[in-house]
Amino acid sequence: NWALAETYNRNPGSYKNPSFKKSETAKDKLTLSFDNAPNGLMAKEKVITGFYISGEKEEWLPAEAKIENDKIILWNKNLKQPVHARYGFSNTMIGNVFNKEGLPLCPFRTDNWPVDQGPEKN
Question: How does residue 69 score in pLDDT terms, banded at 50, 70 and 90?
Fold first, then answer.
């Protein structure tokens, strides 16, 4: 669909995946905004999976999440002030967040901390 729209000037309908736009911290929650979700976001299951949050220090915790239109609100009861988020940041995670047109949310991260990409340590 991307090629039809961008290369051949055809209109296949929605063809861009939702992608991270910005984050805002308010109290103990992190609110994420997204592009390419004109009709909002949805989860394929009841529980939204694949999100992790961290504070100022790199200590990742699984995040609880809820969707409000084109925003996702994240929190973890053990983190007082979340600053960064990651979604789909693993080799095996399959996300379950989509825009209402059915296209999956692209994996993303809001931090720029180095990531160990060496072999797995036993």
Answer: confident
